Every structure is written in structure tokens, then in C-alpha cells.
Amino acid sequence: MTRPTLRAALEVGQFVAAPGIHDMIAGVVANKVGFDFVYSSGYWGTASAHGLPDAGIVSYTEMVERLQILCRTVDAGVIADADTGYGGLLNVDHTIRGYEAAGAVAIQLEDQEFPKKCGHTPGKRVIPRADMMRKIEVACAARQSRDTLIIARTDARQMEGFDKAVERGLAYRDAGADIVFVEALTSEDEMRAACERIDAPMMANMADGGVTPILTADALRDIGYALAIYPSLTGLAAAA
Question: What is the value of pTM for the model shown?
């Protein structure tokens, strides 16, 4: 099966809205709806498969197996959450190769310390900016296809403030990230300013119950985002 590439979608200006898929029944439903892209959420993959919180407990081995099954199940291109890369630079290299082989069309890495936490919870800590830049460089070198995109997420907004978070986004773009994801922005004004200041495709996280305003796809496009994930969508619907 030939999956749609995220790079091609972004190059033609298609706004991508990707629901988070928490289990394989939701994946089958997504096929019936006909999404072009879906999101493999670390939070919901951990919760649905293991009944555990998003706190860095589940390993790379468990998550890549989950991703393999999801990529076999869905027709859509899968955007995959790879947390911190599960360790140092060698782990990042291994993670990117494994996630790409599993079928991911884009792989997201974040700059939190390990063990990480959900991006919308207090008490997060981030690694030095230079260390994350090196992770991105390793990730870009590890991928086997230019159609496998690297998404760089910064969780620095709560610890370092908005301006420093934007500076990290720019640095991660310069390190080679294809898409920049400034997590947990707290207002529409911050979201718009981040998109204006970072010259790269930007990703928004529409996390129900989080600190970022939940907006329509049209509003996000108007602000300047290229894509949005809705990571809790199917999990919360199933739970309800």
C-alpha cells in the first residue's frame, strides 16, 4: 500500500488535520471515515495498551511494536510520537530507523528530559538547546527517505517563557527539522506570534483539557499553522 506523504501534502499547501488513534478499532473507523493522516499518540498508545500515564514508563520496544500494528491497520499516513527518542544520540538513531521501518511518514521528537511527561502537565524539564539540536541532526541523518519528516517539539514555554521557546523552535529548524512544534502555548496571540516568527511548517496540538485553546482547522490555518493533531479525539470519545 502506498501511503500519502506528509511532505507532498505540505508542499501543495494542504492543511493537515490528524486525529489521534488510541487503538486499532479506532484505526479501522478512521479508514471508513477516510482520513489522509492520523496521529500515533505516545500518551494514548501508553494509556490504551498498558493502562499507564504518559510518564516515560513504556519503552521504545513496546511503542515501535504498537506503531507497526497501527501502520498495518490504517490506510492513512501515520505521524508518530517518539517522545525524547528514548535516550541519547544512539537511541535517537535507532528510534528513527525503527519508526521509519514501521511505516511512519513523520516522526516527532521533543526536548524534555527523560523520563518525560505529558506536555500539558506541570513539572516538565527540558534539555539544553544544543543537545536537542544534535538529536535533530542525528534524526535527519538516520532517516532513509527524505519523505520521512522530522518534527521537533519544544516544551520550553512553561520553564523558559514564550520568547525562549520560539528561539528553540528557530534553532531546531536550523538543525534540520522539517516541522516545528511549540507545545503548550496558552493563547491565540501566542500561537499567531509563534507562526509569524518561525519560518517553517508549524504544528498545533489540539489537546482536550490542555492549556492551548481548541480552535477549528480553518482558524488554525488562518493563524499560520500547516497541520494540527487532535491526540485525544478517539480515546476520549471511546471513554465517554
Answer: 0.95
